[in-house]
């Protein structure tokens, strides 16, 4: 399919081909699933909700629950007040969540529905039972990307729920960017090893990677509880992991409850993980755990064993900005050459940060925000790479040009490992090395001339 | 949380009318409405309906005019195969931004079309409108007209604003767009023994299987709409003598219009299951009133059935008496599945659709065994409740239902866009039975607490106290008892 791509580059201002992003509401839905007993609600046409649920299900292979306002032609003329009012009443009556997290869609944004007013009225009329919560985020699909929607929903968790009681709690907030449940679990595990009590929100571990029990659980055991998110206003500090997905919420929390924010990047690779653990340890006054030291040692050992396979390899990377920024640093730690680095999301910070990382080592790298996979493929056609790292959508170009390929980020629609193996921390870096090495060497074993086919590598 | 098992799940009062039971008198099933606001509906929108119907036309350009999401979620998700061009598997969109919403997206669309048509030289282009385009009032028709005049190909707007109805309305919009192509091509060389196949989307190559049967009968297949579809075939499909409509939900509108405009009669058929596939071949032969053709059809059925029958019989022995739930898009598929399951010994105890009408639900109530639950536009909670109450062994549905079934410890067969095996035709029946057998009989269910408990009951072991067995039997295979359960 993508083999129709040609190296010839034509400026495109009006046309998106093979996007490297999707729309805000799905990000908001994913974030909302990271609250325990929360029903995400899509205020728009029923197709939006259905698409987001299907897409998340394809990636996580888990049931994804969310409700919709089921807009009709009438609602698009008269506004969605009646739909949302009825929806809230129905949701609390039958699905009985602790909290409903409403996000808008392009339709309700353009109509201009005022969600807080509708929810307030609904509460007055008894549509929202006492003691239950409704939060909302504006997530117009024609602005930003799914990562922005994710961030906006977390900001709304802070603005609606976080409270400062005046009594500081001995805990550190961790706000992760748009990452896997397995990643969130790994970050919590590392935090626990430093001995610092943490509250993570959103937290989709044990929500979207639950066990098979033979029972149907509408609200799985995982997720940050409303009480935990409320208590984030009393925490010692916030660690926000990722500029695009997490920093805004941490800044809001600092503004609202005076909780100091450490604005960091995702802990992928050695350096970023070191920084994460050191920051956490310094904040909480904990020790460096012997176990983490061991994990780090094993990672560095592996890197030394294998560095000759990675040295100088040309890599093309596409993904969500926070993931790509963190991964690019790790690739540089491995002395690889990320020559093409793109994201579909808009945001100057992406290009600025990647330039900081790459200018000293790969000065001629092509770096672009608001790009798409078609453009990336055009660059590859012009000058090939040794390794391609993208979400599942990259598989067509990997096939077209026989490029070693590692799936990374969201969505992964055709493999299973991402659901179980994190790419965060020292252990996650081991996993990434394993995947990249296998891709490169499997490719060599398949394609090299007979005399270069070697038993021992 | 509170909601865990079937008995504790309630049905929304406003949904009660949409649920009925076979073998019991009762009012007609309420259907054809938009979903209740606030329900976890399994349904999609107008855009979705249009996109899935037209998308398999492989040599056309498909451009989504709207924000990125609508294009992203429908990018190459359906395994509709093409024997030639792969252009349709790319995602092309105008990726509307805030400024476009304020100032309009017409210019952007025009530029996108120019660039794409110039590069790919497609036979035609479809432009899908999304919710927002309907609101900001872009004159998509005018843009398409200009592009068509400029490039000399049909550029067809598809009026698929998501909020303007249900998925069914999207099918209709797609049919209307496709209709604009019909009648513009040369019908010379079209035989009097000719048909079009409507409503088969060539998922996993199904159109190819079915097409082969008709060709072996001496029938010319003019256009396959839209599986492995081509623009030029659509243009001349009005020359065919008969339209066979497989997916009635999506293609009834097109077949009716073809009858009105060109006088082409149509038959509703199904290619799923031995009975329905054979009936489709026989009825077509009878339509042409040609004895040789009928004889050929009989020969095909005899040969094909002989080929699959021994294996089907072997699987049937294992599947006899097992219970199935069906939740699919269209009712016609549900009919076929009830029959196909029956032919491998299985009983349908729950059946629902997204787009069935009143008559469809009456048919389902009549054809299913007493006690079978019949439901329109269901949601996960209801489905989970009924699956547990009806103690099903197999769920047939689509992407959103699969993980729910698995969580309950129930086997699953995808009979929707994402199936990887061809399920149409005789060989499709074999594939279907293989999938069902593989999933229902999988040893993995022996590790599921609820299932292993049931298996123990079946061999006459005393019923253990509720809850007491979960820990003890969770990991214990109950291989001795699977047959006993039948």
End-to-end separation of chain A: 34 Å
Distance between the termini of chain B: 34 Å
Tally of helical segments of chain B:
19
Number of domains of chain A: 3
What does the average pLDDT of chain A come to? 95
**Main sheet overview of chain B:** 6 strands, mixed
CATH superfamily of the largest domain in chain A: Nitrogenase molybdenum iron protein domain
Top CATH class of the largest domain in chain A: Alpha Beta
- The CATH topology of the largest domain in chain A comes to Rossmann fold
Question: How would you write the strand order of the largest sheet of chain B?
Answer: 1-12-11-10-13-14
Structural class of chain B: alpha/beta
- CA-based shape of chain A: globular
- Global mean pLDDT of chain B: 88
Instruction: Summarize the largest interface: chains and residue counts.
Output: A-B, 85 and 90 residues
Q: Please tell me the CATH architecture of the domain at 46-179 in chain B by its name.
A: 3-Layer(aba) Sandwich
Structure described in brief:
Chain A is α/β, with parallel strands linked by helices and 457 residues long. In chain A, 46% of the residues lie in helices and 13% in strands. Chain A has three domains: 24-161, Rossmann fold; 172-290, Rossmann fold, CATH 3.40.50; 291-452, Rossmann fold, CATH 3.40.50.1980.
Provide structural commentary:
Chain A is α/β, with parallel strands linked by helices. Chain A has helices at residues 24-33, 46-60, 73-78, 81-95, 106-111, 115-124, 146-161, 181-193, 226-231, 247-257, 269-284, 290-310, 321-333, 348-358, 373-382, 395-400, 425-447, and strands spanning 16-17, 38-43, 67-68, 99-104, 133-137, 172-176, 198-200, 237-241, 261-264, 314-318, 337-342, 366-368, 387-390, 405-407. Chain A is built from 17 helices and 14 strands. Chain A has a 5-stranded parallel sheet, sandwiched between helices. Chain A has a 4-stranded parallel sheet with strand order 3-2-4-5, sandwiched between helices. In chain A, strands 7-6-8-9 form a 4-stranded parallel sheet, sandwiched between helices. The longest helix of chain A is centred in the C-terminal third of the chain and has 23 residues, at 425-447. Chain A starts with 15 loop residues before the first strand and ends in a 10-residue tail after the last helix. Chain B has 486 residues and is α/β, with parallel strands linked by helices. Among the domains of chain B are: 46-179, 3-Layer(aba) Sandwich (Rossmann fold); 194-301, 3-Layer(aba) Sandwich (Rossmann fold), CATH 3.40.50.1980. Helices cover 44% and strands 14% of the residues of chain B. Chain B has helices spanning 46-54, 68-72, 98-103, 106-120, 131-136, 140-151, 167-179, 206-216, 231-236, 248-262, 274-288, 291-319, 331-343, 358-367, 380-389, 402-408, 425-440, 449-458, 469-473, and strands spanning 19-21, 60-65, 92-93, 124-129, 155-158, 194-200, 220-226, 242-245, 266-268, 323-328, 347-353, 373-376, 394-397, 411-414. In chain B, helix 14 (358-367) links the parallel strand 11 (347-353) and strand 12. Chain B is globular. Mean pLDDT of chain B is 88; it is low at 1-7 and 456-486. The chains are: A alpha/beta (457), B alpha/beta (486). Chains A and B meet through strand 1, helix 2, strand 3, helix 3 and helix 4 of A and helix 1, helix 2, strand 3, helix 3 and helix 4 of B.
């Amino acid at each position: 399919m993508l083999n129709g791509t040609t190296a010839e580059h034509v400026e495109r201002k009006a046309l998106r081909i093979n996007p490297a992003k999707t729309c805000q509401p799905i990000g908001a839905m994913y974030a909302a699933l990271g609250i325990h007993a929360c029903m995400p609600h899509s205020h728009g046409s029923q197709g939006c909700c259905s698409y987001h649920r299907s897409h998340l299900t394809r990636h996580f292979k888990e049931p994804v629950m969310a409700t919709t306002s089921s807009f009709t032609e009438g609602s698009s003329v008269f506004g969605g007040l009646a739909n949302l009012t009825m929806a809230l009443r129905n949701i609390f009556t039958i699905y009985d969540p602790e909290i409903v997290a409403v996000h808008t869609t392009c339709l309700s944004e353009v109509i201009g529905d005022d969600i807080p007013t509708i929810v307030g009225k609904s509460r007055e009329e008894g549509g929202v039972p006492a003691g239950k919560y409704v939060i909302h985020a504006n997530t117009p699909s024609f602005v930003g990307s799914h990562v922005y929607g994710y961030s906006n929903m977390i900001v709304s968790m802070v603005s609606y729920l976080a409270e400062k009681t005046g009594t500081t709690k001995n805990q550190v907030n961790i706000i992760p960017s748009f990452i896997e449940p397995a990643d969130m679990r790994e970050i919590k595990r590392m935090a626990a090893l430093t001995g610092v009590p943490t509250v993570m929100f959103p937290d989709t571990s044990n929500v979207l990677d639950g066990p098979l029990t033979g029972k149907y659980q509408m609200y799985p055991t995982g997720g940050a509880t409303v009480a935990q998110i409320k208590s984030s206003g009393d925490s010692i500090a916030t660690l926000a992991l990722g500029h695009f997905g997490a920093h805004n919420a941490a800044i809001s929390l600092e503004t609202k409850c005076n909780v100091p924010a450490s604005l960091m990047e995702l802990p992928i690779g050695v350096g970023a993980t070191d920084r994460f653990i050191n920051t956490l340890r310094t904040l909480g006054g904990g020790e460096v755990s012997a176990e983490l030291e061991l994990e780090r040692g094993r990672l560095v050992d592996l890197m030394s064993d294998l560095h000759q396979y990675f040295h100088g390899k040309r890599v093309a990377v596409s993904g969500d900005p926070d993931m790509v920024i963190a991964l690019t640093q790790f690739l540089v730690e491995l002395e690889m050459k990320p020559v093409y680095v793109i994201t579909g999301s808009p945001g100057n910070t992406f290009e600025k940060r990647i330039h900081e990382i790459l200018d000293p080592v790969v000065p001629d790298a092509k770096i672009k925000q608001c790009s798409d996979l078609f453009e990336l493929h055009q660059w590859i056609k012009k000058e090939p790479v040794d390794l391609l790292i993208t979400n599942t959508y990259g598989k067509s170009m990997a096939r077209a040009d026989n490029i070693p390929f590692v799936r990374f980020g969201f969505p992964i629609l055709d493999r299973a490992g991402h659901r179980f193996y994190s790419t965060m921390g020292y252990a996650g870096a081991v996993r990434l090395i394993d995947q990249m090495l296998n891709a490169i060497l499997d490719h060599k074993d398949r394609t090299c001339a007979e005399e270069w086919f070697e038993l021992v590598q | 949380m509170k909601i865990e098992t079937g008995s504790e799940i309630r049905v929304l009062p406003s949904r009660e009318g949409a649920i009925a039971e076979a073998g019991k008198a009762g009012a007609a099933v309420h259907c054809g409405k938009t979903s209740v606001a606030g329900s976890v509906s399994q349904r999609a929108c107008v855009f979705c309906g249009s996109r899935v119907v037209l998308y398999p036309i492989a040599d056309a350009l498909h451009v989504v005019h709207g924000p990125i999401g609508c294009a992203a979620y429908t990018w190459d998700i359906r395994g509709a195969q093409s024997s030639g061009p792969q252009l349709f598997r790319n995602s092309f969109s105008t990726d509307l931004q805030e400024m476009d919403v304020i100032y309009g997206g017409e210019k952007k669309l025009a530029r996108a079309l120019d660039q794409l048509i110039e590069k790919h030289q497609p036979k035609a282009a479809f432009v899908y409108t999304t919710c927002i385009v309907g609101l900001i009032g872009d004159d998509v028709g005018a843009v398409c007209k200009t592009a068509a005049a400029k490039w000399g190909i049909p550029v067809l707007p598809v009026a698929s604003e998501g909020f303007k109805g249900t998925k069914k309305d999207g099918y209709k919009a797609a049919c209307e767009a496709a209709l604009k192509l019909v009648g513009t091509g040369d019908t010379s060389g079209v035989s009097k023994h000719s048909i079009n196949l409507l409503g088969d989307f060539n998922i996993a190559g199904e159109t190819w299987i079915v097409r082969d049967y008709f060709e072996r009968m001496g029938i010319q297949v003019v256009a396959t709409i839209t599986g492995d579809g081509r623009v030029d075939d659509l243009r001349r499909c009005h020359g065919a003598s008969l339209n066979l409509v497989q997916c009635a939900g999506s293609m009834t509108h097109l077949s009716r219009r073809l009858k009105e405009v060109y006088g082409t009669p149509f038959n509703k058929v199904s290619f799923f299951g031995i009975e329905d596939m054979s009936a489709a071949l026989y009825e077509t032969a009878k339509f042409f009133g040609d004895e040789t053709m009928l004889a050929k059809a009989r020969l095909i059925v005899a040969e094909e059935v002989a080929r699959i029958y021994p294996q089907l019989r072997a699987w049937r022995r294992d599947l006899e008496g097992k219970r199935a739930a069906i939740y699919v898009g269209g009712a016609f598929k549900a009919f076929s599945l009830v029959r196909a399951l029956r032919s491998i010994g299985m009983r349908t105890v729950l059946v629902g659709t997204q787009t069935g009408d009143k008559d469809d639900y009456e048919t389902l109530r009549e054809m299913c065994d007493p006690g079978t639950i019949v439901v329109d536009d269901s949601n996960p909670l209801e489905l989970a409740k009924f699956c547990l109450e009806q103690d099903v062994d197999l769920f047939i549905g689509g992407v959103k239902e699969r993980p729910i079934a698995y969580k309950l410890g129930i086997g699953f067969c995808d009979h929707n866009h994402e199936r990887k095996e061809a399920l149409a035709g005789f060989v499709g029946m074999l594939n279907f039975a293989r999938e069902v057998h593989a999933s229902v009989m999988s040893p993995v269910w022996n590790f599921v607490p609820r299932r292993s408990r049931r298996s123990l009951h079946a061999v006459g072991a005393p019923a253990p106290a509720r809850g007491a067995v979960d820990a003890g039997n969770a990991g214990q295979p109950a291989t001795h008892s699977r047959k006993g359960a039948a």
